[in-house]
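Aim 2, interim progress. The first record below pairs a target sequence with its structure tokens.
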Amino acid sequence: METGNVTRGLPEGAARRAARIAQVGARYGFGYVFGRRFLLGRRARDVGRVGTRLRLAMEELGPTFVELGRFLSTRGDVLPPDVVSELERASSTSRQIPFPRCERSWRGSSGTPWSVSSWSSGRRR
């Protein structure tokens, strides 16, 4: 199942993101969570254990989900030990953003240049 088929016609935002999460979940064998539409006849990646599949899905969904997985890994009282150990291994790589781009974004949202902000000097107001 391609992302375009799942998200076709959806506006940018929450609905598109939910469809993407469902698609990735189905790819890793969790389609039953999202209903009949996402039950696939076969998985693109057939990795056996639930913990491994959950970790790979979270890594594919990005840093927010990786952090959610790492948070869940602290709950050994709720999750099985093999799932906890897999979620502890979750990692994400994020692209570096050039500082001028960050500075433009800062200026656009705050209206002040980075150099005169309280954050640039290391002080908080």
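The second target in this work package is listed in the same format:
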Amino acid sequence: MASDPRCTFCWKAATDLCGRCKAVRYCGRTCQRADWKTHKVFCGVEYPVKDGKVASYRGVLFAVDEEKPRFMELPVSNIGDSRTASILPMVVQALGELRFGLRSVNHHGRLANVERELMRGQLVLHCHNYNFNVKDDLPPNLALREFTGLGMEFDMPGAVVITKERRMRTEEFMDVELDDLKDMVDILRFQMRVSAEHRKIIKNFDMLGSLERIQQQYDNETEHQSRHTEE
């Protein structure tokens, strides 16, 4: 049963293949239509060619200067002087200058399904660990807007990379596949909404701080005028 084909959208038993790319399966037309807005971005796109001389794993890059996300190969390299092999150095390189450090978020998927997670692994979102208190010049990510369908109020600034691990926080890497796209949308939409909420909180704190400063200034001026009047 574990090897039976599953619907990429709902994870039920699948019977139909995408007629164009022949790479993902669905349980019927309903799920296929529901998934098309996401799937069409990559439908028919060929995976990057792997270099047989260097171990690598496929991820997805949401670059700030591109309108759509794309697959990319992330070669494995050693971290520092250790023998620990990782794709993180290439992830960092793809993200560009990390002014506030790297933030990586694991995603458990849409279903609490152990069998599914063992078969398909878990996605990891890598992005800039930006500080909403600091005004920065990280450009908006248009590829994220295109892929998720969320507006500019949900922007996550800077580039974003999606990778996949066999189990959470193990760095047992796997290739991101076409049937991971729905989970990718889920984790991106969730994190973009979290970012929007953080911005609201910071804005409210800034507004509260401004009101407190205005009140303090008013109190100081009132106290100064009272002293002047008494004199």
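The chain has a mean pLDDT of 77. This observation will shape the mutagenesis plan for the next reporting period.
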